[in-house]
Amino acid sequence: MTTTTLGRTESRPAKMDEARAVLITRIGIVAVLLAIWEIAARSGLLYRDVVPSLLLITRALAHLLIEPTFYANLGVTAGEVALAILIGGGGGVAVGILLGSNRFLQRAYEPLLHYLGPTPKIIFFPLLIMWFGVGPGSKVAMGALSSFFPVAISVAAAMREIDTVLIRVGLSFRLNVGQMISKIYLPAMRAPVINGLRIGLGVAIIGTLLAETKLANQGLGYAVIQTYATFDMPRMYALLIVVFLLAVGVNVVLGRYTKLPGTRRPSDAH
User: Are 88 and 215 found together in one domain?
Assistant: First the structure.
């Protein structure tokens, strides 16, 4: 057995032990947070209707999951978020590639992305209502606007890290723009693109839900603000838990995709 083979054999149990330790740590953190919540709920130090016990939240969640209106609202929000990430994320990838492949455009326009990126997008919602109406269009636009900037910034930065040898190979084979994007750029920066989309998805969900709380008659954001208005705190927390778990689930799937064989950071090519 060679040293390399031995190293690989020894590294597998080490990686499994590390993954197990990480999982146990995460479970422990969640358990501690839940215990703190339950203690706060039972202590009487806080208003019990504001911080309900875990049992009340669990009951509200169970009732929520058997209500047809919940799934109708979930479908509305899921559709809006999907369109938002498709438009905003797709646009961010396209703009990021454009800026990353052209030094003049990069110097002229990329600073604007960094200036506008941290701006709270909710301030643009009145304009989006005027442009796209009070229906789902303005919510999709809000989510798309929110997701565009982190994706564009991530892709533009990743473009600068692509090995120039790969680009020269593509040019030597006289690949057109579409072929360069599909065969050189995207494969070389798959991990940064997916990580940008993960961030974009998170802010798209936030933007869409915020828009639904402002002006809507359907969607999870609308359902949350309605439970808040009626002071049904257990149901509100149940809705927030559902949103959180769905966002985590999608992020886990995307995170797994970055670990598939052939996925690497652009800098790894050097």
Answer: yes
Structurally, the chain folds into a number of domains equal to 2
Residues 257, 269: Cα–Cα separation, whole Å: 19
Residue 105 and residue 7 share a domain = no
pLDDT 10s digits, 132-152:
988 899 999 999 999 999 999
* CA 7 to centroid of chain Cα atoms: 36
- pLDDT tens, residue by residue, 73-110: 999 999 999 999 999 999 999 999 998 888 888 888 88
Q: Which domain holds residue 73?
A: 57-269
176 and 113 within one domain:
yes
